[in-house]
Specification:
- The protein is an alpha+beta fold.
- Helices cover 24% and strands 32% of the residues.
- The chain contains six helices and twelve strands.
- The strands form two sheets. Strands 1-2-3-7-6-5-4 form a seven-stranded mixed beta sheet, sandwiched between helices. It has a five-stranded antiparallel beta sheet with strand order 11-10-9-8-12.
- 40% of the residues are buried.
- The protein binds adenosine-5'-triphosphate and biotin (BTN).
- The site of biotin has 20 residues, from helix 2, strand 3, strand 6 and strand 7.
């Protein structure tokens, strides 16, 4: 019910143009391939069902019917803005803050794009830049949050397993409340991001770094590194101290694991 979401957004409601669909392949694909005409508002696409929800590297975002919230937002930057750095981390921080305000305890961020609770994956973010074609930068930020998973739901490749809000909170929020809170945090954080960039958010991100000071292994795209995770830099690149000094891992198609 979008009316409810807009009511919950209060004074921020006018900034948003939300739309729901019963079914689509992926809300990210939809907004990347058919971006709405620019009208100064932040376009939001919510899908009841995705038939091909995506993570990075062509991996799947699994949604079970009615089990979660899957949506994407389109952010347009001012003319002359640089290609946004650390955007996926900024979005993760907004999501973490929204969840913390709902009283979810133990939220941590896994570089570059996952939200974990006590090591279990609760939500994922997929950021994709639109082709510039001479226009200012624009990015689609897609978010999937598990609200109430079916019993015994599992996914491949999550060493710590997965979790949902129903498992973390005695009274989990409605989908409307969850969406309104996440949009409100994204909105507020992006005002900071747009004026001061990721450096202004870096400390807040690092406070929630799931792998801070832990031994990690990074693999993929011809990269294979081990070391201690010491944080992120002003561009949102991961910093890993290994035998040959500190390495910067650019947010890309690599996978991060505790070693
Ligand atoms: P990596 O762990 O390699 O750094 P990632 O966790 O960021 O990658 P992506 O490829 O971006 O992974 O996202 C897809 C992954 O998310 C899937 O491979 C699966 O492990 C996990 N996943 C898929 N659906 C869900 C879900 N509903 N809840 C939690 N995790 C999910
Ligand atoms: C990840 O787990 O790392 C990323 C998952 C992102 C999933 C969301 S669901 C809404 C949007 N549409 C997609 O196809 N992916 C994102």
């Amino acid at each position: 019910d979008l009316e409810r979401v807009l009511a919950l957004l209060g004074h921020r409601a006018a900034r948003f143009a939300p739309r729901t669909v019963e079914e689509c392949t992926s809300t990210n694909t939809e907004l990347v391939e058919r971006p709405p005409i620019e009208d100064g508002r932040i376009h939001v696409l919510i899908a009841e069902r995705q038939t091909a929800g995506r993570g990075r590297r062509g991996r799947n975002w699994h949604s079970w019917p009615g089990a979660g919230l899957t949506f994407s937002t389109l952010w347009r930057f001012a003319p002359g803005s640089a290609v946004p750095a650390g955007l996926s981390l900024a979005a993760g921080l907004a999501l973490a803050r929204a969840l913390e305000k709902l009283d979810v305890a133990g939220i941590q961020l896994k570089w570059p794009n996952d939200v974990l609770v006590h090591g279990q994956k609760l939500a994922g973010i997929l950021v994709e830049l639109l082709p510039m074609r001479g226009r200012p930068p624009a990015a689609v930020i897609g978010i999937g949050i598990n609200l109430r998973l079916p019993a015994h739901a599992t996914v491949p490749d999550q060493p710590g397993g997965i979790t949902d809000l129903a498992g973390q909170l005695a009274s989990p929020p409605s989908r409307e409340e969850l969406l309104a809170r996440v949009l409100a945090e994204l909105h507020d954080l992006f005002e900071v991001y747009a004026s001061a960039g990721f450096p202004a958010l870096r400390a807040a991100w690092q406070q929630r770094n799931a792998f801070a000071d832990l031994p990690v292994r990074i693999s993929g795209e011809g990269v294979e590194t081990r070391g201690t995770c010491i944080g992120v830099d002003d561009d949102g690149a991961l910093l890993v101290r290994g035998e040959d000094g500190v390495q910067r891992i650019l947010s890309g198609e690599v996978s991060l694991r505790v070693d």
